[in-house]
Amino acid sequence: MTNKTIKLVVNTLSSGFILIGLFGMLFCFPFLWSADWADLVGAGFPFVGGSILCAAGLIALALNNRPTNVS
Length: 71
Fold this sequence. Notes:
Blueprint: H1 3-28, H2 37-64
């Protein structure tokens, strides 16, 4: 595999993680407004998991696309 192919694969996976994390957070968001404690706990953990996936995807995307210094 060339560097260009690896970069494309990492960019695709990072974007996928961002989208999956956003979907998870948006899916759990309405349940966070519930007055029931079980709904809050049941929606809170996946919401945090989605935010971790989204943040990991953003970090991987940023690190993969940083400019390289060639001297």
